[in-house]
From TrEMBL:
Keyword annotations: Disulfide bond, Metal-binding, Metalloenzyme inhibitor, Metalloprotease inhibitor, Protease inhibitor, Secreted, Signal, Zinc
PROSITE patterns listed in its UniProt record: NTR
Protein name, entry field: NTR domain-containing protein
GO cellular component labels: extracellular matrix; extracellular space
GO MF annotations in UniProt: metal ion binding; metalloendopeptidase inhibitor activity; protease binding
PANTHER family (alphabetical): METALLOPROTEASE INHIBITOR (PTHR11844), TISSUE INHIBITOR OF METALLOPROTEINASE (PTHR11844:SF33)
Residues reported in the UniProt entry to bind Zn(2+): 24
Record GO biological process: negative regulation of membrane protein ectodomain proteolysis
Provenance organism: Eptatretus burgeri
Domain NTR: 1-116
Disulphide connectivity of cysteines: 24-64, 26-91, 36-116, 118-155, 123-128, 136-147
Length: 175
């Protein structure tokens, strides 16, 4: 009995001295949702559209702060706080431009804005509930396609929207 009491006491002491780890966690969210929910009316592709902009972010990753590399191009979306400062956190839209495919760049520059009237409903656990006509069910975290309004009034991942071929895609992306 005294041995088990000493063991229990040792565990309690260890628990008291253990530091609490804090971490930022973000629920998986489709890029178009992040794009459309950004306070900035236009998502900035910074190196091309602006010479200088101040971005505010929490100072640590545990508080959802972001770390940007100098001379890299980013697509950023975030919120404007009550002081008028552009705040970006890791759960917001934070993409390195050079890591995106040509199709992903086209979605960001041309299509996501057209789909802001559609709702993307996350469904990462199956079975998924039925989508309403104005919803696209997001079942795959790797899916970055836009959810777009179709001619029949529904929203779908694919509808009669003109998608350029690879050559057209490259010409549609700003250099």
């Amino acid at each position: 009995m005294p041995g088990s009491l000493a063991f229990l006491l040792a565990i309690c002491v260890l628990c008291l001295h253990q530091q609490m780890a804090q971490a930022c966690s973000c629920y998986p969210t489709h890029r178009q949702v992040k794009f459309c929910s950004s306070d900035i009316g236009k998502i900035y592709h910074f190196a091309r559209k602006m010479n200088l902009i101040k971005i505010y972010t929490p100072s640590s990753g545990a508080a959802c702060g972001i770390h940007l590399t100098l001379n890299e191009e980013y697509v950023l979306g975030g919120r404007v706080n009550s002081e008028g400062k552009f705040m970006v956190r890791s759960c917001d839209l934070v993409l390195e431009w050079n890591r995106l495919t040509v199709s992903e760049k086209y979605h960001i520059e041309h299509l996501y804005k057209k789909g802001c009237g559609c709702k993307i409903k996350g469904c990462l656990n199956h079975p998924c509930p039925a989508a309403t006509p104005k919803e696209c069910l997001w079942k795959d975290v790797g899916n970055t396609l836009p959810c777009l309004p179709c001619k029949d009034g529904t929203c779908q991942w694919t509808c009669d929207f003109p998608f350029p071929n690879q050559v057209g895609l490259k010409n549609a992306i700003k250099p």
